[in-house]
Every structure is written in C-alpha cells, then in structure tokens.
Structures
1.
Amino acid sequence: MSLTFFLLLYCFWCGSSADDGGFTSLVGIGEPNERTTLMGGFIKASHPPKVIRDEFFVQELDHFNPNDNRKWLQRYQTNNEYYAIGGPVFLLIGGEEQISNLWMTTGAVAEYAKIFNAMIFQLEHRYYGKSYPTENLNTTNLVYLKIQQVLADVEAFIIGKSQNELHDAKWVLFGGSYPGSLAAWARITYPNLVHAAVSSSSVIKTRIDNIDYYKVADKALSDYNPQCVSNIRQATMVINDLLNTENGTKYVETVFKYSSPINLKNDVRQFFHQLALPISQIIQYNKDNRYFPSREEQSPVTITQLCDVMLKKSLGNPFDRYVALHEKLRQINRRKSSFYSYQRSLKDNSEISWNKGLVKSGDRQWFYQLCTEIGNFVTSNDEDHLFGNTIPIDFFIDLCSDIFGESFNLSELEKAVNKTTMLYHGLKNSTSRVIYLHGSIDPWSGLGLKEPKSDDSVSIFIEGVSHCADLYTSRSSDPPQLLKARQKVTFYLNKWLREI
Ligand SMILES: *[C@@H]1O[C@H](CO)[C@@H](O)[C@H](O)[C@H]1NC(C)=O
Ligand SMILES: *[C@@H]1O[C@H](CO)[C@@H](O)[C@H](O)[C@H]1NC(C)=O
Ligand SMILES: *[C@@H]1O[C@H](CO)[C@@H](O)[C@H](O)[C@H]1NC(C)=O
Ligand SMILES: *[C@@H]1O[C@H](CO)[C@@H](O)[C@H](O)[C@H]1NC(C)=O
Ligand SMILES: *[C@@H]1O[C@H](CO)[C@@H](O)[C@H](O)[C@H]1NC(C)=O
C-alpha cells in the first residue's frame, strides 16, 4: 500500500511508465499474491474463483454544498460468499490507485471475513480507477478531491448499503497506508456508523517535510549491514561532486544511462530523487507477500540483495557498485533508463484527461492530495541522511507550483497541512476500537500512531516486516510475530464485535 503515501514516492517512478511498460501497480498496496494462498495459508481462494463484478454507487460530488446536486458513480465490489445473516460488514477502503478484485477473495480482509462470516465490500477512492467524479482533472475540478469529501463518500456508502438485511450489521473498516488513515479517521468522524477500524501502516502524523522516512529506511539497511548505508551515502557524495563539473555531469549521465541532460537545479534534485526511489521501494515492500503478475522477477528483490551489491568489492568502489545496483534494477524492471528531466515530469503530471498517462495511474491525483492537504514529502536534506543533502523540500514545493499553479506554494500548503493535523491527526482520546499495525522496517512507520490515546484502541508493532505486511495473504512462511499480529486482530475484532 500506498503508498501509500507513498506516495509521491512512485510519482516519478511511474512517470515513464507510458514508455516502457508501467509501474502503476507499485503505487499503493497493489494486489495480494493469489498463488501462495493456494499453497497453504489458512484460507484458500474459492474454487472456482468467485467472480467479482464492478458495481457503481451514486454519490454526491460535493457533500457539503446543498445547492450542488451533481452526482457521479463510484465503483465498488462485493463478496458475500463468507457472509451469514447477522454477520458484520467489512469494508476495505480504496486508496490512491484503482481497486483490485483480488482483495475480495484473497488477502487478510478475506481471511478475517471468513472467520467472522462477514460481508465484504471494497469502495474505490474518488478520482482513482474508474471512479470519475468530474469531466476532467483540471485544478477547478480537483477541488472535490479532499479528505472530508472522501470520508463523506464512505458515510454515504454505509448508509446506502445499510438497508434491508444489513441494517443492523456492524461495519468494520480496513485500509492500508493512506486508506489505513482514512479507516481511522472515518471511525472518529462517524462513530455511530463505523463500529471499528483496522488501520494498517497508516500515517497519522502529518507534516510537510517527512524526514523520518529515510531514517527508518536507513535503519532497515543498517540492521542488515551498516556498511551498506555508508556505501550508498559515499556514492551519493561522489555523484554530487561529479555534478559540479561539466565533464563530471557527462560522466554521470553516461554511466547511469540518463536520457536527457542534467543541467538545471531541479534536474539534479530529480535525478537524486529518482536514484532514491527504487531503493525506497525495495525497503518499503521488503518480503511483503506482494505479487506482480506481469513482473514475477521483480517481486522478490529484497534488502539483502540490494545491500549485497553495495558490499561486493569485486564490483569496484562504492560509486561503481551504486552504478551496478541501478543497472541491475533497470534490468529487473525491464527499463532502458529510469530517468527523465524535471520538465518531462511536469509535462506528464499536467495531463487532465481520464485514462491517460499519469492520470490513469493516479499519480497526478495523488500528487495533488500531497500538495493540498497531506504534505509528507519524503526528503533527504542533511549530510547525515541516507541520501545526504540531495532531496530538499523545495524540490517538491516547486513541483506543486509548477504542476498546479503558483498559488500551490509553501505557505498555502503549511496552512492546509495544519488544518489536516487539526481535523484528523490529533485523533481524539475517544477514538476507540481502532487497531493500528506497523512494521518495524516500514519507512512510513515513523509517522504512524504507536501509542493510541484511547484505552480501547491498540497498536501492534511487528518486528522485521514492512509496509502493510499484515494485509497481504497469510502464508506458512510468515514470521511468528506477523502470525501473532494477525491473531491479535482476530482477538480484538471478536471482542469488539460483541460490543453494542
Ligand atoms: C476545467 O474543466 C471544466 C469542464 O469540466 C471547465 O468548465 C473549466 O473552465 C476548466 N477550468 C480550467 C481552469 O481550465
Ligand atoms: C573535460 O574533458 C575534456 C575531454 O576529455 C578534457 O580535454 C578537459 O580537460 C576536461 N576538463 C576538465 C575540467 O576536466
Ligand atoms: C501563495 O499563494 C497564495 C494564494 O494564491 C498567495 O496569497 C500568497 O501570497 C502566496 N505566497 C507566496 C509566499 O508566494
Ligand atoms: C502551522 O503550524 C506550525 C506549528 O504549529 C506553525 O509554526 C505555523 O505557523 C503554522 N502555519 C500556518 C501557515 O498556519
Ligand atoms: C487524553 O489522554 C491523555 C493521556 O491519557 C490525557 O493526558 C489528556 O488530558 C486527555 N485529553 C482529553 C481531551 O481528554
């Protein structure tokens, strides 16, 4: 999951997807691995697999303006195969990507649904996938892409679906990464409709500049081998020095197979950002049971393999090893070049038609959310940070203004992020019945809520696993602490579902 918050993380990563094959599924939580399920977790996919169809729910465009009656169709999916009358409803909240019907039959939510005889719904997030609230995504139309509106969609959906046999059912919300935050926020905002929430790898604290991300990433690598981190940092410094001269720049462009010249300040920052992305991605999704149907060889790249390249003396000095690492990642990802200019990413992010480029993948929308309400831009802005002082906050603020317009500036974002913090991130003491789960090597865990303020909420910290590990399909190879976390979720759901 997204990414979560990822978010922006994958923005530029996806940027060249239009050219060479697509990285869309690396945004957010992707899909659970259906095949390992068949080999033995505690649930098997149905045989024959249940057919999950897209359905559409009529939604308001603006929930807060009674004079605006415009409507749109929000995609959702249903699986009633585990449901028994009187059972609860489990709603998986969609995030910054299209929803995948695999989540309806495999993955942890389906596993819990089987235990509790729950009805399962999955609701796609407005502006992503096939859920188009507006004609296009220009900045006038994007104003309805707001957390408050998203939560109100969830409210309307619950009310709409609570007719007939579900009218007494208790609703439990699930989500991973950003949707994990939405699940917790929906529980605070609509306590009478949302009975409980399971909030996996959610980011609850919000700030503009997320320096914690690379701190946790740094630690994840150091725990394997501290030399791995110092070699990455050393390679980064060498590149930084090389980029100070014309010859050096040419050399860097050649060895990293950069397709356009690195000449402007933001090209340099973007270059460093793009060097950091695949590394962050490996850490964030380390051994997490995800599965990429079209790129099987990509799934198993782990911290171990990453660091082994950075530690391999036969490859040369740390700079040479870093070059070799990126070469290897390009091969695995079947790309000729992983880089493109700042101008190019502006152009790709400025598309406003549905179903094109970075709108189709959700990147433009997600970046808009970051620039207007969420912030949490992943920076490395100090000599001590994993990537040194190469990815400052200004880089992201420039992107916001250059893509969406001059009024998307730092002071506006500060105001907006402060408002988000005030509305949601404090999470009141009364926010009961929320389970927060975090993996110790998940770089997003730094902004998660590890000490719930309410006695009747719990936080589960899982050693050694990464982003949203608990949401993917369970398997016999799961570490015992992950199994234990899953059992705890079952325990609390069981307890809370008995409560009125
Ligand atoms: C955005 O698109 C709408 C049509 O959906 C149009 O009416 C509006 O003028 C456009 N706004 C801008 C700023 O281009
Ligand atoms: C840059 O490379 C050219 C050609 O190899 C060489 O003549 C020149 O001296 C180099 N300049 C610097 C500053 O290293
Ligand atoms: C940021 O944008 C707002 C809204 O357009 C504007 O009022 C403000 O002056 C801008 N601030 C800076 C520092 O540019
Ligand atoms: C946002 O909050 C921070 C910390 O509370 C404060 O220092 C800053 O002045 C606020 N900014 C705006 C624009 O409200
Ligand atoms: C919330 O809980 C904390 C710790 O239990 C307590 O210090 C604080 O006063 C509580 N705040 C409210 C608004 O109840």
2.
Amino acid sequence: MLSFNQKIVTYSPAYTLVPTYECFNRCSYCNFRVEPGSHPWMTLAEAENILLPLKNQNVCEILILSGEVHPLSSRREAWFGLIYDLCALALSMGFLPHTNAGPLSFAEMQKLKNVNVSMGLMLEQLTPKLLNTVHRHAPSKLPQLRLQQLQWAGELQIPFTTGLLLGIGETEDDWWETLAAISDLHHRYQHIQEVILQPHSPGSQQIFDAEAFNPLQLPEVIAKAREILPADITIQIPPNLIKDEGWLLACLDAGARDLGGISPKDEVNPDYPHLQEQRLREILQPAGWELRPRLPVYNQFNSWLVEELAATVRNR
Ligand code: SF4
C-alpha cells in the first residue's frame, strides 16, 4: 500500500466493452441507455475483434459495463451468459476483467467471481427520497438492494468498487450517511478497494434538468469522505468530469488518489472525453504528482482470486 504522504496518483489502463446499452431502468440523468429490444447485443466475435489489437497496447483492465435486463425477464439468462462469456474471453486473452452490470443475484455474483478480478456497483445515494424523483422509473435503484450487493460481495470475497453520484437531488447529510454505510460494510468484510465520488455532469441525452455538481465543492466532499472512510479504501475521482485543472489538483490535495479506468471513451458520460495519460501527466507532474498505472485488483486481494485469475495477475 502506498504511503498517504507520497504524491502518487493511480489509474487503470482500461477498455470498456458494452454487452448491451438496453436497460429496464429509466434513471432521468442517464446518458447510456437504449430501449430494451431496440439494439442488438454485442457478439463474442465483435468483442474478440476489439480485444485482439488491444493486446499490443497499454491496456490491462477490460471493464464489462452493461445496461440491465430485468431479473424476471426470459432474456436474463442469455444476458448473464453473454456477460460471463465476455469476461472469460477477455481473461483467455490475458486481460483482467471487472464487471459492473447492475444488481445481480447471489448465484450470478458467485459465478462472475470466477472470471473477474474485481467487480463494481455504484451505491449512488442511500436516501429513498430519490425513488420519487430521478429514480422514479428505476426499480433496481432501491438503496437496500444495492447495499445488499455490497454485502454479498463481502461474503463472497469479491474485491469491490462502489461510489456516490453527487448532485442528483440529495443533501449533504445523505452523502455522509452513504459513506458511513460503505464504511460499516468494509469494517465487516474488508472488501471495498475504491469509492468513486462522481459529480453529476449533464449530458446531451438526459432528461434530468439540473446543473452540474459544483466542482468547487468536490475537494471539501473528498476531505470529509477521507475522514469517514477507512484508510485502506482509495478515493477515486473521474478527471474528465472535473473541468478545471486547478480543481483536479485540489481534489488530490484533499485526499483523492485514483483516477479510475482511463479508456478511449467514457461510456457513462459520453459527452465528456477522457483525458488521456499524456495530458494527465502534463497536469500532474508540474504539481509534483506521479501518475502510476495500476491493476483493477489491489495487491491485498490476490489471495481471494481463483487460480486462473491469480495466474493472470502474476503475469501482469
Ligand atoms: S443510469 Fe444505469 S441503471 Fe439507470 S437507466 Fe442508465 S444504464 Fe440503466
């Protein structure tokens, strides 16, 4: 683990595969989803064509990021099977998969543990108030359902990334409550590797009519989150959503230490292109920060990985 005083900030060289953009939820701030049945799903052949050239590039993590098929849908099994097969394909090619596909059943999570070095799900906010606003038409955004995912990940010893979406109608007290809940679960299972603090950033497809989260407030939130969260959880921020370079540096000074997966496109915020590695270094180095690549699983979790995953991590 890095000393907190070292000026080192990490990122994961990544590529995002999207099995499907379709989603049965309709979060009003969404810039990702399409209507169920309106677009074909990714095929394994398409995925292989995308992944092959990445073998010679600086890519380690394959993020499998999917819209959600309803748990009771007759297409759920095929959807889950595609996600599993995409992970297995990426793994067979030497990449390290990390899946974020919404709430899963315990059995689905158990299966994905065999082909993922880590998994993720944004807790977003615990307050049920949002079920009457931005999540009115998003059945899988039930806070207790999402909290249960974090608990199951702990029981299954799956290294996990979660986070808060800031500026979707919650209060400051809601942030601290959500962070405290993450902290409690981590104390029980020691399985949370990162907490993302993601500022709401309006996109061209969303219907939620609200300002972007004020980036000037982010360092203050990070500093308080650093007090609430255990020291072994890294705070991650998405640099493409923090427009001002000075405020990006202020976020690091406040305690953020990771910039997440940097891939050609931010699929969740397609209106905000990722800053690529070279540009990030140009911002960070003059301020004394070293940018370092990392794996999508932290060293302390290696003993939780099944052998095939552990062997692929050792080769990286
Ligand atoms: S934000 Fe996620 S869960 Fe909500 S509609 Fe979009 S893809 Fe679905």
